[in-house]
Specification:
By secondary structure, this protein is mainly beta. The protein has a single domain, classed as Immunoglobulin-like (Sandwich), CATH 2.60.40. It is 12% helix and 53% strand. The protein is built from one helix and eight strands; from the N terminus they run H-E-E-E-E-E-E-E-E.
């Protein structure tokens, strides 16, 4: 999956004849959990798809803070995951979680 992320970044940075479509994935199609520990928080997001896509991003938004986003990694065939580790306990401050897929038109 790393090569797809690199290819996607190159396409977006350099421009291309490829039309890239951004599609927010319905919340019913992915799962996420949040666990507060004594000194940190883990937000884990998982999305399963076998569709041909260029890249998948996972993002979270805490109350009164900007969106944070990263490329999701393909852990096994058709299963993409991303874990965010934060250095404070913030599960109660999660305003939104989203997954965005990028594919050719």
């Amino acid at each position: 999956m790393i090569w797809k992320g690199i290819l996607f970044s190159f396409i977006m940075a350099c421009g291309s004849e490829i039309d890239v479509i951004e599609e927010e994935i319905a919340i019913e199609e992915y799962s996420w959990t949040c666990h507060d520990y004594e000194d940190w928080t883990d937000i884990n997001i998982e999305y399963s798809t076998c569709d041909d896509i260029l890249s998948i991003h996972a993002a979270y938004k805490l109350i009164n803070r900007p969106w944070e986003s990263r490329f999701m990694e393909e852990e096994e065939d058709c299963v993409y995951t991303m874990s965010f580790r934060l250095i404070e306990e913030v599960c109660m401050e999660i305003e939104a979680i989203k997954v965005i897929g990028y594919h050719e038109s």
